[in-house]
Amino acid sequence: MVWFEEAIPLFLAVKFDGKSLRSREFFEAALNCRNIYRYVWGGGLICRQLEKDLNGSAGPCLQAFLHTPEGFPTVESAPKDKVMGVEGFRRGLDVRDKLLWCNRALRFIVSILSKLVGDHEIEVNVAAKATYNDVLAPHHSWPVRQIARTALSQCPWRRDMLAKLEMTNEIGRAHVCTPV
Hints:
Helix content is 62%, strand content 2%. It is built from nine helices and two strands, in the order H-E-E-H-H-H-H-H-H-H-H. It has a two-stranded antiparallel sheet with strand order 1-2. The chain starts with a helix and ends in a 5-residue tail after the last helix.
Protein backbone atom coordinates (compact mmCIF):
# COMPACT_ATOMS: atom_id res chain seq x y z
CA MET A 1 0.00 0.00 0.00
CA VAL A 2 1.26 3.48 -0.83
CA TRP A 3 0.85 6.44 1.52
CA PHE A 4 -1.80 8.08 -0.65
CA GLU A 5 -4.08 5.03 -0.35
CA GLU A 6 -3.71 5.33 3.41
CA ALA A 7 -4.38 9.08 3.45
CA ILE A 8 -7.66 8.83 1.52
CA PRO A 9 -9.50 7.06 4.39
CA LEU A 10 -8.73 10.03 6.64
CA PHE A 11 -11.42 11.89 4.75
CA LEU A 12 -13.61 8.89 3.95
CA ALA A 13 -13.77 8.11 7.68
CA VAL A 14 -15.29 11.52 8.39
CA LYS A 15 -18.86 10.68 9.35
CA PHE A 16 -21.96 12.49 8.22
CA ASP A 17 -24.30 13.55 10.99
CA GLY A 18 -27.61 14.09 9.25
CA LYS A 19 -26.91 16.62 6.49
CA SER A 20 -23.54 17.79 7.77
CA LEU A 21 -20.05 16.64 8.70
CA ARG A 22 -19.01 16.21 12.31
CA SER A 23 -16.77 19.14 13.19
CA ARG A 24 -13.98 17.45 15.11
CA GLU A 25 -13.41 14.62 12.62
CA PHE A 26 -13.50 17.00 9.65
CA PHE A 27 -10.96 19.47 11.08
CA GLU A 28 -8.63 16.70 12.26
CA ALA A 29 -8.73 15.06 8.82
CA ALA A 30 -8.02 18.40 7.13
CA LEU A 31 -5.03 19.01 9.41
CA ASN A 32 -3.71 15.47 9.05
CA CYS A 33 -2.50 16.10 5.50
CA ARG A 34 -1.43 19.68 5.90
CA ASN A 35 1.76 19.34 3.85
CA ILE A 36 0.18 17.79 0.75
CA TYR A 37 0.43 20.95 -1.36
CA ARG A 38 4.11 21.52 -0.74
CA TYR A 39 5.17 17.93 -1.08
CA VAL A 40 3.07 16.59 -3.94
CA TRP A 41 2.87 19.73 -6.07
CA GLY A 42 6.35 20.99 -5.30
CA GLY A 43 5.45 24.09 -3.32
CA GLY A 44 5.45 27.43 -5.06
CA LEU A 45 3.40 30.55 -4.45
CA ILE A 46 -0.05 29.03 -4.96
CA CYS A 47 0.70 25.86 -3.02
CA ARG A 48 2.05 27.86 -0.08
CA GLN A 49 -1.06 30.03 -0.08
CA LEU A 50 -3.40 27.02 -0.24
CA GLU A 51 -1.46 25.29 2.52
CA LYS A 52 -1.68 28.48 4.58
CA ASP A 53 -5.43 28.69 3.94
CA LEU A 54 -5.93 25.09 5.02
CA ASN A 55 -3.67 25.27 8.09
CA GLY A 56 -4.80 28.74 9.08
CA SER A 57 -8.45 27.79 8.76
CA ALA A 58 -8.84 24.21 9.95
CA GLY A 59 -6.56 24.74 12.98
CA PRO A 60 -8.45 27.71 14.45
CA CYS A 61 -11.78 26.03 13.67
CA LEU A 62 -10.66 22.96 15.61
CA GLN A 63 -9.59 25.28 18.47
CA ALA A 64 -13.00 26.94 18.42
CA PHE A 65 -14.71 23.55 18.43
CA LEU A 66 -12.60 22.35 21.37
CA HIS A 67 -13.37 25.61 23.20
CA THR A 68 -17.14 24.98 22.94
CA PRO A 69 -17.81 21.48 21.50
CA GLU A 70 -21.51 21.77 22.17
CA GLY A 71 -21.51 25.01 20.15
CA PHE A 72 -21.18 23.32 16.76
CA PRO A 73 -21.09 19.54 16.70
CA THR A 74 -21.38 19.65 12.90
CA VAL A 75 -19.65 21.87 10.38
CA GLU A 76 -23.04 23.11 9.20
CA SER A 77 -23.88 24.36 12.70
CA ALA A 78 -20.77 26.56 12.96
CA PRO A 79 -21.56 29.77 14.83
CA LYS A 80 -22.47 32.82 12.78
CA ASP A 81 -21.08 35.15 15.44
CA LYS A 82 -17.45 35.35 16.46
CA VAL A 83 -16.34 32.77 19.02
CA MET A 84 -14.82 34.59 21.96
CA GLY A 85 -12.07 33.22 24.19
CA VAL A 86 -10.30 31.11 21.57
CA GLU A 87 -6.54 31.24 22.10
CA GLY A 88 -4.82 33.64 19.71
CA PHE A 89 -7.97 35.61 18.81
CA ARG A 90 -8.47 38.57 21.16
CA ARG A 91 -11.46 39.95 19.30
CA GLY A 92 -13.00 36.57 18.63
CA LEU A 93 -12.74 34.05 15.82
CA ASP A 94 -15.02 34.22 12.79
CA VAL A 95 -15.48 30.48 12.23
CA ARG A 96 -17.63 30.87 9.10
CA ASP A 97 -14.90 32.88 7.37
CA LYS A 98 -12.27 30.27 8.29
CA LEU A 99 -14.53 27.49 7.02
CA LEU A 100 -14.90 29.25 3.70
CA TRP A 101 -11.13 29.27 3.07
CA CYS A 102 -10.71 25.74 4.40
CA ASN A 103 -13.43 24.57 2.00
CA ARG A 104 -11.74 26.26 -0.97
CA ALA A 105 -8.35 24.73 -0.17
CA LEU A 106 -9.85 21.25 0.19
CA ARG A 107 -11.90 21.66 -2.99
CA PHE A 108 -8.68 22.50 -4.83
CA ILE A 109 -7.14 19.16 -3.73
CA VAL A 110 -10.22 17.15 -4.71
CA SER A 111 -10.66 18.92 -8.03
CA ILE A 112 -7.06 18.65 -9.22
CA LEU A 113 -6.84 14.99 -8.24
CA SER A 114 -10.13 14.30 -10.07
CA LYS A 115 -8.75 15.93 -13.21
CA LEU A 116 -5.49 13.97 -13.01
CA VAL A 117 -7.27 10.66 -12.41
CA GLY A 118 -9.88 11.34 -15.11
CA ASP A 119 -7.34 12.15 -17.84
CA HIS A 120 -4.18 10.06 -17.89
CA GLU A 121 -2.46 12.39 -20.34
CA ILE A 122 -3.05 15.78 -18.70
CA GLU A 123 -0.02 17.49 -17.17
CA VAL A 124 -0.17 18.86 -13.63
CA ASN A 125 0.16 22.51 -14.66
CA VAL A 126 -2.81 22.20 -17.03
CA ALA A 127 -4.92 20.47 -14.36
CA ALA A 128 -3.81 23.03 -11.77
CA LYS A 129 -4.77 25.99 -13.95
CA ALA A 130 -8.16 24.47 -14.78
CA THR A 131 -8.74 23.73 -11.09
CA TYR A 132 -7.70 27.25 -10.14
CA ASN A 133 -10.11 28.71 -12.70
CA ASP A 134 -12.96 26.55 -11.33
CA VAL A 135 -12.32 26.83 -7.59
CA LEU A 136 -10.33 29.94 -6.70
CA ALA A 137 -10.28 32.43 -9.57
CA PRO A 138 -13.89 33.56 -9.02
CA HIS A 139 -12.83 34.84 -5.59
CA HIS A 140 -9.73 36.74 -6.73
CA SER A 141 -9.19 40.10 -8.40
CA TRP A 142 -7.81 40.31 -11.93
CA PRO A 143 -4.17 41.01 -10.86
CA VAL A 144 -4.20 38.10 -8.39
CA ARG A 145 -5.60 35.77 -11.08
CA GLN A 146 -2.74 36.72 -13.43
CA ILE A 147 -0.09 36.07 -10.77
CA ALA A 148 -1.73 32.79 -9.78
CA ARG A 149 -1.93 31.50 -13.34
CA THR A 150 1.72 32.35 -13.90
CA ALA A 151 2.73 30.66 -10.65
CA LEU A 152 0.79 27.51 -11.58
CA SER A 153 3.02 27.13 -14.64
CA GLN A 154 5.73 26.01 -12.21
CA CYS A 155 3.94 22.81 -11.16
CA PRO A 156 5.98 19.60 -11.36
CA TRP A 157 5.74 17.20 -14.30
CA ARG A 158 3.06 14.54 -14.01
CA ARG A 159 5.63 11.71 -13.81
CA ASP A 160 7.38 13.44 -10.87
CA MET A 161 4.15 13.98 -8.99
CA LEU A 162 3.03 10.39 -9.57
CA ALA A 163 6.36 9.13 -8.27
CA LYS A 164 5.67 11.00 -5.03
CA LEU A 165 2.17 9.54 -4.82
CA GLU A 166 3.59 6.03 -5.22
CA MET A 167 5.92 6.26 -2.23
CA THR A 168 5.65 3.70 0.49
CA ASN A 169 3.64 4.47 3.61
CA GLU A 170 6.71 5.15 5.74
CA ILE A 171 8.26 7.73 3.41
CA GLY A 172 4.98 9.34 2.33
CA ARG A 173 3.66 9.69 5.87
CA ALA A 174 6.91 11.28 7.00
CA HIS A 175 6.63 13.98 4.33
CA VAL A 176 2.90 14.59 4.09
CA CYS A 177 0.83 13.35 6.99
CA THR A 178 1.45 15.34 10.13
CA PRO A 179 -0.43 14.23 13.26
CA VAL A 180 -2.75 16.80 14.80
